[in-house]
């Protein structure tokens, strides 16, 4: 679509001077227009204001300043329900589904078909299933029974159910907030096909994503937010990914990062023949003081399970975890049967699911930071609020957490700042070994580089870091060595000077090829003959 074609399209939604202030301004003076049949990419760092702006448009948040128009009429929804009734719908990262109800019931929860004129509450189950199958077919869920409970679906399928729910009935504006974060490649393709259908019907879309390669596939224009302000709007074809990143963070980010001068010491952590069923099989490696050791592999290779075994969150079938009692001393086995044992030994786990396992989202930053440090802030079993706030403020300053202070609710923070709160909790405890499981998943490129810089600072202090990541380029950027998991085994450990992307990928598939060869090997008798 060229600029003349774009300008000829009718404006569906306009936002003028939108702003929102909580304890401090999070959005200021944002003006945008959205035209029928176009996709506007909305991007920016975590905390830039993307979610706040989209929630204002979707009726979930009331703006402090500014006005909106939907078509030719003033638009000021008092709730999400009111916005949806006017044709403005939003698919959020936090799914709006009821896991104990079926897929069909979730799709038509507020408009369940009734039996006859005098139904007395009876639901027409046949019509409900037929309507649900039609809605599900639009997003490629044909193979799923509409009577399946949503809680029994994987997160990717749940995301597609949420998208299907928002495509039912009249939709004039559709907001997609990180819609592909949990989807497979096939599901992403199905979603993009649906987006193209919606555009041909004249639906206007706002597409929020950190995955810049996706934006080029679906968006006509891109709007970049930074620190709550709109800093750039342009046609997608006029910008490269590097230029978008520069607008996002206000500076250029190269493909290299300086983690500072580090001196690698003797092994601080040693894992020997760690085993749990078939998910982790005889894994051995060590990590030196001051080293960043990466763990790569395909999904399901056993990376997260390995971290959980080291941390004592799962019970091992065999093997040992050893730690050096003092710098330079040889690692000696320690009994780690529970996470409490690991914490006492000086091992911390920054989980991949920060919202479900790493944080108390309704609680303030102070409570989350002190969660692993109660002994330092409590007296006689009672938490001293002054000590708790002081501890939290120290981590806020050290981690550069964007917040209004220790009292701000963690659920109000951006993903990157939430991740910093999790890390800050363990830094306050001074753990010597830090296990990072997907530490930058779901956070923007600027926040990623903040986390990388933090990892470099921790390594310079002589701590041992183990980093699991699905992003191979990330591991190659920050790690000293990379161990590759494949089918539960560690198939290789690569030094920075000798690794290549091809070699790392080959190692990631090696365990599966070996297992396939064993499954198809000829059967022999005890004498070795066929």
Automatic annotation (TrEMBL):
Task: Specify the protein's topology with respect to the membrane.
Answer: Peripheral membrane protein
Q: Where are the transmembrane segments?
A: none
Q: Which GO CC annotations does the UniProt entry carry?
A: plasma membrane
PROSITE patterns found in the cross-reference section: ABC_TRANSPORTER_1 (PS00211), ABC_TRANSPORTER_2 (PS50893)
Keyword terms: ATP-binding, Cell inner membrane, Cell membrane, Hydrolase, Membrane, Nucleotide-binding, Repeat, Sugar transport, Translocase, Transport
Asked if the keyword Transmembrane helix belongs to this entry, the reply reads no
Q: What is its main location?
A: membrane
Recorded hits in SUPFAM superfamilies, A to Z, give:
P-loop containing nucleoside triphosphate hydrolases
Q: Is Acyltransferase set as a keyword in this record?
A: no
**Secretion signal span:** none
Enzyme nomenclature, EC number: 3.6.3.17
Q: What class of enzyme is it?
A: hydrolase
Q: Which residues form the ABC transporter domain?
A: 10-252, 261-512
Instruction: Tell me where in or outside the cell this protein is found.
Output: Cell membrane
Q: Which GO terms describe its molecular function?
A: ATP binding; ATP hydrolysis activity
Give the domain of life.
Answer: Bacteria
Q: What is this protein called?
A: Putative ribose/galactose/methyl galactoside import ATP-binding protein 1
What organism is listed for this UniProt entry?
A: Paraburkholderia ribeironis
Lineage of source species: Bacteria, Pseudomonadati, Pseudomonadota, Betaproteobacteria, Burkholderiales
């Amino acid at each position: 679509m060229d600029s003349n074609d774009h300008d000829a399209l009718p404006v569906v939604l306009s936002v003028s001077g939108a702003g929102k202030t909580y304890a401090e301004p999070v959005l200021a003076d944002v003006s945008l227009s959205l035209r029928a049949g176009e996709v506007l990419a909305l991007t920016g760092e975590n905390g830039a204001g993307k979610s706040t702006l989209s929630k204002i448009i979707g009726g979930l948040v009331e703006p402090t300043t500014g006005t909106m128009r939907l078509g030719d009429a003033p638009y000021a929804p008092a709730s999400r329900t009111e916005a949806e009734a006017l044709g403005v719908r939003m698919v959020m990262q936090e799914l709006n589904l009821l896991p104990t109800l079926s897929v069909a019931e979730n799709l038509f929860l507020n408009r369940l078909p009734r039996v006859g004129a005098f139904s007395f509450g009876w639901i027409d189950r046949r019509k409900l299933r037929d309507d649900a199958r039609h809605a599900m077919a639009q997003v490629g869920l044909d193979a799923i029974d509409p009577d399946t409970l949503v809680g029994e679906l994987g997160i990717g399928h749940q995301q597609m159910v949420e998208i299907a729910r928002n495509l039912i009935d009249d939709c004039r504006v559709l907001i997609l907030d990180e819609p592909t974060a949990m989807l497979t490649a096939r599901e992403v393709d199905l979603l993009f096909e649906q987006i193209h259908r919606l555009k041909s019907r004249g639906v206007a879309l706002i597409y929020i994503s950190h995955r810049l390669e996706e934006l080029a596939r679906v968006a006509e224009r891109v709007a970049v937010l930074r620190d709550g302000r709109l800093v750039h709007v342009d046609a997608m074809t006029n910008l490269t990914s590097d230029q978008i990143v520069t607008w996002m963070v206000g500076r250029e980010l190269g493909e290299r990062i300086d983690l500072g001068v580090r001196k690698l010491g003797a092994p601080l952590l040693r894992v020997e023949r760690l085993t749990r069923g078939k998910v982790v099989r005889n894994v051995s490696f060590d990590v030196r003081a001051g080293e960043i050791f990466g763990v790569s592999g395909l999904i399901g290779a056993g990376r997260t399970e390995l971290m959980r075994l080291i941390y004592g969150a799962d019970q091992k079938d065999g093997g040992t975890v050893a730690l050096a009692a003092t710098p330079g001393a040889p690692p000696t086995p320690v009994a780690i049967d529970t996470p409490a044992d690991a914490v006492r030994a000086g091992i911390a786990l920054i989980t991949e699911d920060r919202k479900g396992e790493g944080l108390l989202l309704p609680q303030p930053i102070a409570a989350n930071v002190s969660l692993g440090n109660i002994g330092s802030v409590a007296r006689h079993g009672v938490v001293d609020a002054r000590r708790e706030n002081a501890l939290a403020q120290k981590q806020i300053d050290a981690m550069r957490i964007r917040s209004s202070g220790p009292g701000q609710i963690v659920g109000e923070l951006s993903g990157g700042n939430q991740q910093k709160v999790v890390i800050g909790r363990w830094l306050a405890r001074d753990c010597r070994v830090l296990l990072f499981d997907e530490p930058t998943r779901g956070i923007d490129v600027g926040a990623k580089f903040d986390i990388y810089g933090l990892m470099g600072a921790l390594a310079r202090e002589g701590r041992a870091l183990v980093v699991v990541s699905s992003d191979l380029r990330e591991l190659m950027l920050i790690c000293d060595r990379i161990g590759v998991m494949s089918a539960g085994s560690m198939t290789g450990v690569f030094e920075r000077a000798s690794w290549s992307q091809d070699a790392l990928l080959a190692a990631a598939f090696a365990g599966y090829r070996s297992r396939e060869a064993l499954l198809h090997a000829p059967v022999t008798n005890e004498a070795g003959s066929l």
